[in-house]
Amino acid sequence: MKLKVEFFQAIESLLHHKLRTILTLLGMIFGVGAVIAMLNIGKGAEKEALELIDSMGLRNIIVKARTFDDNKLKEIREKSRGLSLRDLDSSKETLPFLSSYSAIKKINTYSIFSHIGNSEANVIGVTPSHLKMANLKLKNGRFILPIDDLLYSRVCVIGSRVAQVLFPQENPMGNDIKINHLWFTVIGILKDKVLIKSEFEGVRLKGEQNNIYIPIQTGIKLFRFKPVENEIDEFRIRLKKGFSADIAAVTLNHLLKRRHKNADDFELIVPEALMKQHRDTQRIFTIVMACIAGISLLVGGIGIMNIMLATVLERTREIGLRRAVGARQKDIKRQFIMETVAISAVGGVLGIVFGFFLSFTISSFAGWAVGWSFSAILLSVGVCTIIGLIFGIYPAIQASKLDPIEALRHD
Fold first, then answer.
1. Are residues 90 and 102 in the same domain?
2. For position 53, what pLDDT does the model report?
3. Is 373 found in the same domain as 288?
4. Which domain holds residue 388?
5. Residue 377 class from Cβ within 10 Å (0-12 exposed, 13-18 middle, 19+ buried)?
6. Same domain, residue pair 94 and 187
7. What is the pLDDT of residue 176?
8. Where a domain ends, among 246, 270, 294?
9. Which of 50, 153, 259, 347 is a Cys-bridge partner for 148, taking CB atoms 3.0 to 4.6 Å apart?
């Protein structure tokens, strides 16, 4: 109760000089707000990065065929036949760190329609393991099975947008769609998986809503391709636990270079390395923002010391009177420290409000993801209080050491 009374007395004392108190508070408000906004943006960026990297698979290594103009492609084909299923087979047979794998072949289409509508969806031949490797989830039905590949089955799994376009008023399950000259039966529908961005650390990402998946062997066997095309456009391997992604990528690259006779017709994407690159970039951003927020809090602390020293000077006679009627040095010291705590607490609360406003503004206008962090509030208010106390202790000590007789004589 005594502390509560002293706290409200401190607030009342600060309100006697409203403008000066407000100016002192600004430094703390901006500092706390900057810390909260910085941590919220960092948390949002981390969450966004994890969502984007999830579409590639953090423990995957992706091998993609490069695209070239016709003349360059013919020149490359003199040395290398391009990315193929045999490359994937060799990787499985040679490399000990693979736990699973999948392959992709994009089908060139000129017509996709159902008995209700038509679509411009992407048709992709995939291995049965693609569902797991790409972290996809089914809404209805099933995904492609190994038997579908063996029998060149004409079955397909469609994205949510394809389902809405081709079957707006019907359940797509069991219905047929025609892709180019062939009919395929819908056996599954994927859940929505909306990507926040179409690019991550320079790597383009694509959503799954507008895709149609068919067995890869069906696609290779029944559709036409140019003689110089790659047999597959991409394959993914997943690493066993304990293996370094960087070392695995170097080993895989060496194997494929030998198979392709050093032709530079493929590229490796290592999501784990991309995540590390993103975190390094984010760390630099966090350090810069922390320095800015620290400077603002430091300025706020200096402001607190300034106002407390001025308060001590103005209230010298009051201090002398209190000492004369029995107040001890520690009572005077506690009084001024309580005023420091009060101004830090008010600055911290207003800083929290400003921090969330700043986070919302940045999210709205800059398009950055923001994650709301309770730890950001605790950290910023804690730092604010500590700085306030550090800069408030000196004026409190000065006030407690005033000689009562000299203080009473002060005009």
1. yes
2. 67
3. yes
4. 2-53+277-409
5. buried
6. yes
7. 93
8. 270
9. 153
What's the one-letter identity of residue 295? Answer: I
Whether residue 239 sits in one domain with residue 291: no
Both 249 and 369 in one domain: the answer is: no
Query: What pTM was estimated for this model as a whole?
Result: 0.68
Q: Write a three-state SS string for the chain.
A: CHHHHHHHHHHHHHHCCHHHHHHHHHHHHHHHHHHHHHHHHHHHHHHHHHHHHHCCCCCEEEEEECCCCHHHHHHHHCCCCCCCHHHHHHHHHHCCCEEEEEEEEEECCCCEECCCCECCCEEEEECCCHHHHCCCCEEEECCCCHHHHHCCCCEEEECHHHHHHHCCCCCCCCCEEEECCEEEEEEEEECCCCCCCCEECCEECCCCCCEEEEEHHHHHHHCCCCCCCCCCCEEEEEECCCCCHHHHHHHHHHHHHHHCCCCCCEEEECHHHHHHHHHHHHHHHHHHHHHHHHHHHHHHHHHHHHHHHHHHHHCHHHHHHHHHCCCCHHHHHHHHHHHHHHHHHHHHHHHHHHHHHHHHHHHHHHCCCCCCCHHHHHHHHHHHHHHHHHHHHHHHHHHHCCCHHHHHHCC
**Residue 402, token pair as written in the block:** 């005033």
Are residues 221 and 102 part of one domain? yes
Work out the pLDDT band at 186, boundaries 50, 70, 90: very high
252-to-43, 130, 247 alpha-carbon distances in Å: 34, 20, 9
Give dist(CA 287, CA 369) in Å, integer.
Answer: 18
CB count within 10 Å of CB 92 equals 12
Retrieve residue 254's tokens: 């060496």
pLDDT at 11: 67
**Which of the listed residues 270, 300, 319 is the one where a domain comes to its end?**
270
Tell me: the pLDDT tens digits for 338-397?
A: 777 778 878 888 888 888 888 888 777 766 767 776 776 777 777 777 877 787 777 777
Task: Output the CA–CA distances (angstroms, integers) from residue 239 to 59, 98, 243, 247, 266, in the order listed.
Answer: 6, 5, 7, 11, 19
Residues 257 and 347 in one domain: no
Whole-number Å distance between alpha carbons of 371 and 362: 12
The number of distinct structural domains making up the chain is: 2
Summarised one tens digit per residue, pLDDT across range 21-35 is 787 778 778 878 877
Residues 6+ apart with CB under 8 A from 71: none
| pLDDT for position 32 | 80
Q: Tokens standing for 406?
A: 């000299």
Q: What is the C-alpha separation between 274 and 281, in angstroms, rounded?
A: 11
